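Lecture 7 notes: from sequence to structure.
We start with the chain below.
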Amino acid sequence: THVERFDKMSNLSAELQKVEKTYIHTESAELAQTRNSVVGGLQAFGNSRFQLGRVLRQYKMHFKSGHGWVAAANLIAAAMDRDERTVFRIIEDYERASQLPPIILEAMLEQQIEPAAAKHAGVVENLLRIPTEHFAELSRILWLGNTFHPVAFGRKSWWQRFGHFQCRCGFRFQECLRGT
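Predicted structure tokens for the same chain:
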């Protein structure tokens, strides 16, 4: 219920602090801020898996060689009513999506297309296949001045529409999106 979930979230910060004291041994303002970001990110979990993955990864970095991270991940998973594997997958999905060039990430997020969503994993993998020398052209296609040009993205089959564009040198983005 809503009350149980609130209890889990309110206790999460204190429980994570206990794990930190056991495994990290030092309290810093950065660690406290990251912990608070995790708790806040969990409360807004439905809004952005990408942002939650970002804060979880930052928090994980405080644990040396994974020591204590599994205990922390178990607490976080329990607060989400999931298992720790879900926490690991959220971080993996974030890491995959964060490899995209900023122009792609910005465009996806602006169009409320979640780059770390499992349903977009294949598209993200395909976008990562685009050679880096074509990203300047991609930027020209997606942005005209400071205004987003959404013709490449849309609610329906945005990656298919995007794939029809061609770089000035003749490279067709469709080749990467189809995986050829």
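Points to note: The beta strands are 143-144, 147-148. The longest helix spans residues 2-23.
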